[in-house]
Write a structure and sequence with these properties.
alpha+beta, Alpha-Beta Plaits, 2 domains, 3-stranded antiparallel sheet, 4 helices, rod-shaped, binds copper (II) ion
Amino acid sequence: MATYRTKTMKKTISILAIILIISTLVSLAVEPPKTAELKIKTSAKCGMCKKRIERDLGVSKGIVNSNLNLDDKVVTITYNTKKTSPAKIKEVISKIGYDADEVVANQKSHDALPGCCQKSAAAHKD
Ligand SMILES: [Cu+2]
């Protein structure tokens, strides 16, 4: 009788373990990717601005990838939606010293940029 009970328990435990493993695998497979893409218009002027913005975004929480197009000054950002948000990202760009859509550049950071990178500078690429 005792052996029978032990066997049944072992069976129950292994069935429960299998159910647990399967449900974990299913939930992992169903989870949608946590990244989204975002385009932000900036006040970047040149290649230095591009490098500066991409570098600083690169070390910011939740940013997976960023690429600034110098033709239209739009930075395309891939970010982790669980770790950051469009509002936070715009705030980061403002703190680097650049306008980010409706968020105006942090004045102190902007004024600390090289002259050719400031908003009053004439348009140029390098
Ligand atoms: Cu610049």
